[in-house]
């Protein structure tokens, strides 16, 4: 089951929303419902739901989803491309901060909506 997975083991994805054409292919292919189209119809990651199978990276027709380890620095710096799906526990918050530091992500996630 998804619950109980160790959130510290995943690198996740970065989405360059400026390039996204709102096709929804990534949302449809994600096995963990970790992607959505936001209020501007741009793909957005739900941080704690992503478990690194990278089907979305392969499915995107304009190649604007990247493994975090391969993401362009300018894409990482843009706002709005990821949010939390729920309030995180203190331990999960630490994992989030470690992930941001490890991958050079400076923007914070949007709060749960
Ligand atoms: S890497 Fe996999 S789990 Fe993560 S958002 Fe993409 S398709 Fe979903
Ligand atoms: S597959 Fe790519 S272009 Fe289509 S919605 Fe997802 S990120 Fe945007």
TrEMBL record:
<feature type="domain" description="4Fe-4S ferredoxin-type">
    <location>
        <begin position="11"/>
        <end position="40"/>
    </location>
</feature>
<dbReference type="InterPro" id="IPR050572">
    <property type="entry name" value="Fe-S_Ferredoxin"/>
</dbReference>
<dbReference type="GO" id="GO:0046872">
    <property type="term" value="F:metal ion binding"/>
</dbReference>
<keyword id="KW-0411">Iron-sulfur</keyword>
<keyword id="KW-0004">4Fe-4S</keyword>
<protein>
    <submittedName>
        <fullName>Ferredoxin</fullName>
    </submittedName>
</protein>
<dbReference type="GO" id="GO:0051539">
    <property type="term" value="F:4 iron, 4 sulfur cluster binding"/>
</dbReference>
<dbReference type="Pfam" id="PF13237">
    <property type="entry name" value="Fer4_10"/>
</dbReference>
<keyword id="KW-0408">Iron</keyword>
<dbReference type="InterPro" id="IPR017900">
    <property type="entry name" value="4Fe4S_Fe_S_CS"/>
</dbReference>
<keyword id="KW-0479">Metal-binding</keyword>
<dbReference type="GO" id="GO:0016491">
    <property type="term" value="F:oxidoreductase activity"/>
</dbReference>
<dbReference type="InterPro" id="IPR017896">
    <property type="entry name" value="4Fe4S_Fe-S-bd"/>
</dbReference>
